[in-house]
Amino acid sequence: MHTPWPADPTRILEEVAAFQRKLAAGAVNLQSLAEPGYAGTPRELVYREDKLTLWRMRAEHPPTSRTPLLIVYALVNTVWMTDLQTDRSLVRNLLAQGEDVYLIDWGYPDGADRWLTLEDYIDGYLDRCVDVVRAQAGVAAIDLLGICQGGAFSLCYAALHREKVRNLITMVTPVDYHTPDNMLSHWARDIDVDLFVDTLGNIPAALMNWVYLTLKPVRLLQQKYVNLVQILDNPRELENFLRMERWIFDSPDQAGEAFREFVKAFFQANKLVRGGLSIGGKPVELANITQPVLNIYAEQDHLVPPDASRALGHHIGSGDYTELAFKGGHIGIYVSGRAQREVPPAIHRWLREHG
Amino acid sequence: MTAQNPFTDFETLGRQVWEAWSRQWAGPAAPPAANASLPGVEGLKSYLDWMQQTAAMAGQGGHVSPPSPFAGWTMPGMGTPPMGLDALRSLLGTPAFGPGREQQAQQQALMRALLDHQQANARYQELLARAQAQGTQRVQRKLAEPGFQVDSLKAMYDLWVDALEDAYAEIALSDEFREAYAAQGNTQMRVRQLQQQQVEQWCRDAGLPTRSEVATLGQRLQELRRDVRRMQAAKEAVAATSAAAKAVKTAKRRASAKPAGSTMDRPATRAATRRAPRKPR
């Protein structure tokens, strides 16, 4: 009879012993580790409004690029994914390439921010940040790098304010929300978002995280922590793991009204590609995006499937559209070793070609 | 799951593992090295039990419930009511009357919402159980493949996780799951909303400010801020237009004062534009 199990008990005992060693070492390692910090690339406060902070990131050498690059992150989680740790930092690598990098930290909305709308975020906060960066650099238009939901914001902004955006880069940005493999969007379709926002006000970060975790429940809620045992005896890897855990769970609530509008217009009605989207009463049409666009997507992205991103090419008005496929996932595109080698140089090269 | 099923306590085992781990890592005051091996053994035992159960489950079938997407978003008293209360539904539809009409209507609405949530939750759990069963079948099929060999306990566990996730993904992308998922969340929010309304009523009765009142203030304030921004923008636009018009006017004046041609013409132009002397009073 076929027995798929290893017949050798010695091997099982070895596995058990190795597990025990790692567990014992891990106890010591865990207790000796402090709260892991992010990369902490030097930065300068440029502008502050409500909970938002606009930072100019500093390199050891002055930037060679004359046009600033503003990173627009999602409202979900924090922008520090782009500057997670010294050897895994999109920001540091872009600075090293000579880019003049600014980034928006949206902050942590509380009850006072519950009524912020997409107009407040895109035509308000983002527009004023762009104006500040333009004024500081003394240029009429800047380069935008939008990430995930921040990419959707950047698309709306570029369509509304063409004169202020020279080049547009989108990373893991959903454009067509109704591709068949988009589980998150599939689930959101029948959610009564009015009821959620009217009841909860701001949408708690813990609820958002829980939904993301249940996209792959056994892998993300169990296997990940079982696998943790394998690295418990390695302080450096353990620290990296804990840093990522901090980033995942130290996330902001979502301002209620903006969340309501975003889910309805983007997730449910798919207006970015179907049309009919308006921000603050102004129509937003991707066809109005005529700037050069670089669209970077991750091939193994379970949150934003590649097809959801690649749809951009079919809808923008720009004749200068480039796609870059990255072999990795939604987070790996920032923190993997491959990402460090491939993504920032590709962005820099493309920007130089469009300077 | 039944008592005959050897995997009845799968969840309990899982919990034991995590509890053992929690004890292992709990408290900064725990002696770091002296006791390291003892809890380590305890944690290991639970872990191995858990792994063995997982492996056995793959061969014989069983279920472990992935968590509800909205677990933890409940309020006191929001637990699932016992089964068999469906008959109450028609009774709860009875119109309320009398001096306590409003309170009774609220209570009835809350009870109906709880029943709806119970129903939605049962449907959702049924789909999760289906995903688990299909995941197990996948593992069984894999293990039955000729020549297939699992090298270690960990490999067995990983195989089970992959199979379960694949089965879950297939079901989670179905229309049936989408509806069940939404209903689970929506009914839960409805219960929460009705509970909040009752709490607000109590607060109003006690003369305390309510969340709705604070929200209304916030909404008005945000609208006011938008109005101020628009007015500022309009003011700046007017100022910019005015400055531009002034600049054009100045430029025109300069242009008319400086006709093309020789600088020799200047004195004549100046003379021509000079004001006539005032008449003496």
UniProtKB/TrEMBL annotation, chain A:
One of its GO terms (biological process) is poly-hydroxybutyrate biosynthetic process. One of its GO terms (molecular function) is acyltransferase activity. SUPFAM superfamilies: alpha/beta-Hydrolases. Residues 68-334 form the AB hydrolase-1 domain. It holds the Pfam family Abhydrolase_1. This is Poly(3-hydroxyalkanoate) polymerase subunit PhaC. Keywords: Acyltransferase, PHB biosynthesis, Transferase. It comes from Frateuria terrea.
From TrEMBL, chain B:
Residues 243-281 are annotated as: Disordered. Residues 214-241 form a coiled coil. Pathway: Biopolymer metabolism; poly-(R)-3-hydroxybutanoate biosynthesis. InterPro entries: PHA_synth_III_E (IPR010123). It comes from the Bacteria. Pfam families: PHA_synth_III_E. Residues 272-281 have a biased composition (Basic residues). GO terms for biological process: poly-hydroxybutyrate biosynthetic process. Keywords: Coiled coil, PHB biosynthesis. This is Poly(3-hydroxyalkanoate) polymerase subunit PhaE. It comes from Frateuria terrea.
